[in-house]
């Protein structure tokens, strides 16, 4: 009797379990829900393992941290999408339909955030090509400053007067970039003028003394002083010297001040635009001729007061 009752209980439990397994909601049986849940758990575990392995691989490559974060986010999204497709297939949803829905959805989003995507693409180009790094002093998109941060959307620039400028990466990737700190040395180039009355050798020696005296001017490559042009009232000289990048501006300003002091010590005149007034006591030149002359100007219609212009 007891065995018979136990058999009945077992049979009842089996029938109940079978009825539960055969029960369906919206065409999906309980058995399918259980198998789908197990599939989701397995897929998520595999996804986590793959993310861990890929992350370790990227760390060994020693790539830029910002680029690393972006790649890991993209990989996580791709793996999650793969999990969704696999689960949808197990539930009987065609993957082609799912991909088509995501494609239309992605197209709509891309049109809505076109500017964002262009900045994102520009940020990726910058991170891959690395035309500059944090701490570099650059000139880009009509702005000059020190790079303080690079992200996928904006590059942060700190100007010399401590303004923080956020430049869209799309604008940077389409502009010319000048990196002043990529090299360890920079060349200084200054143009100065001296009177024709000052011998060329004296002018060059005076400038050379300054170049030799300044500690920030490198001896190799050797600095240079040359005549670069003969102007209307002066001779133009070009001064070139090399300085460490970190000391460039100190050397530049010291050289400017040193040249002026050296010219004063050696009585070398720096020419500048001025007017010479010539007083003519007796002249037979008609007033009209003096007015039409390109070299003389009549002052107050007085033919005896002549102004000549020197530049």
UniProtKB/TrEMBL annotation:
GO terms of molecular function:
mechanosensitive monoatomic ion channel activity
Query: Which keywords accompany this UniProt record?
Result: Cell membrane, Membrane, Transmembrane, Transmembrane helix
Q: So where does this one cross the membrane?
A: 33-55, 67-88, 100-128
User: Subcellular location, in the record's words?
Assistant: Cell membrane
Domain of life of the source: Bacteria
The cross-references to InterPro entries, in alphabetical order and at most eight, read:
LSM_dom_sf, MS_channel_C, MscS_archaea/bacteria_type, MscS_beta-dom_sf, MscS_channel_2nd, MscS_channel_C_sf, MscS_channel_TM-2
GO CC terms of this entry: plasma membrane
> What Gene3D superfamilies does the database record attribute to this sequence?
1.10.287.1260, 2.30.30.60, 3.30.70.100
* All residue ranges annotated as the Mechanosensitive ion channel MscS C-terminal domain in the record: 192-270
Protein's membrane topology = Multi-pass membrane protein
Indicate the segments forming the Mechanosensitive ion channel MscS domain, all copies. 117-182
Similarity-based family: Belongs to the MscS (TC 1.A.23) family.
| Protein name (database record) | Mechanosensitive ion channel
* UniProt organism field: Candidatus Onthocola gallistercoris
């Amino acid at each position: 009797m007891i065995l018979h009752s136990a058999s009945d209980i077992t049979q009842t439990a089996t029938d109940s379990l079978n009825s539960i397994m055969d029960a369906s909601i919206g065409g999906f049986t309980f058995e399918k829900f259980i198998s789908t849940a197990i599939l989701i758990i397995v897929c998520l575990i595999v996804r986590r393992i793959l993310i861990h392995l890929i992350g370790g691989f990227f760390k060994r490559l020693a790539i830029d941290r910002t680029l690393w974060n972006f790649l890991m986010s993209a990989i996580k999204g791709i793996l999650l999408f793969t999990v969704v497709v696999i689960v949808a297939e197990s539930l009987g949803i065609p993957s082609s339909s799912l991909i088509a829905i995501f494609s239309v959805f992605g197209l709509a989003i891309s049109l809505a955030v076109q500017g964002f995507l262009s900045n994102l693409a520009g940020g990726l180009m910058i991170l891959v090509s690395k035309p500059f790094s944090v701490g570099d002093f650059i000139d880009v998109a009509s702005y000059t400053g020190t790079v303080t941060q690079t992200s996928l959307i904006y590059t942060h620039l700190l100007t010399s007067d401590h303004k923080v400028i956020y430049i869209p990466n799309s604008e940077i990737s389409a502009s010319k970039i000048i990196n002043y700190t990529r090299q360890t040395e920079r060349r200084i180039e200054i143009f100065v003028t001296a009177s024709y009355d000052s011998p060329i050798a004296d002018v060059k020696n005076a400038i050379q003394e300054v170049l030799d005296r300044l500690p920030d001017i490198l001896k190799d490559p050797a600095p240079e002083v040359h005549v670069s042009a003969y102007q209307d009232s002066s001779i133009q000289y070009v001064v070139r010297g090399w300085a460490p990048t970190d000391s460039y501006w100190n050397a530049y300003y010291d050289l400017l001040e040193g040249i002026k002091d050296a010219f004063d010590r050696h009585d070398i005149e720096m020419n500048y635009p001025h007017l010479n007034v010539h007083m003519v006591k007796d002249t037979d030149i008609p007033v009209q001729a003096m007015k039409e002359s390109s070299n003389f100007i009549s002052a107050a219609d007085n033919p005896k007061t002549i102004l000549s212009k020197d530049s």
